[in-house]
Amino acid sequence: MHDQLDTYRSNFLALKDEATALVAGVDEDMLRRPPNPDTWSVAQILDHVNTAGWLLLNSLEQAIQDASQNGPYGEPPFRYGFVSRWFVRSMKPEEFRALQDQFATCVVDAEGLDLRRLRVSSPAVPLLRISVGAWFEATVAHQQRHLDQGRDVIQALGVAQPST
Description:
This protein is 64% helix and 4% strand.
């Protein structure tokens, strides 16, 4: 597997480990409790990430399966266009971990494909088509941002977390 795909795969597996650590030893009631009415609970954060992730994953898997037979094929490194780069910037814990495993498998299945030319529509804005590689990058960033948000919620609730 080339370095770019290996980085995506490693990032998804690391997110899985981070989510496991985030909820380790935290009571289910605390996971459902927002620190204040204007913020999400950890459970709501994970539900959001899971919903967005599963919607996107289905499209990515289909595009990769089709492209494995018909292309486009390409060699890394892949560089993404303006819209894709702009987009990158812009539950239940078990389900989140399963989602990360599926994303990691999806990345492995993309080996040999042109991650820049292969594009998938956004589940939220179907007219917005982003390259598969940029989707991998954006999804890791989106999920990381929400795990950070979850850590902030746990801290705001005063829940003791095991040290890492």
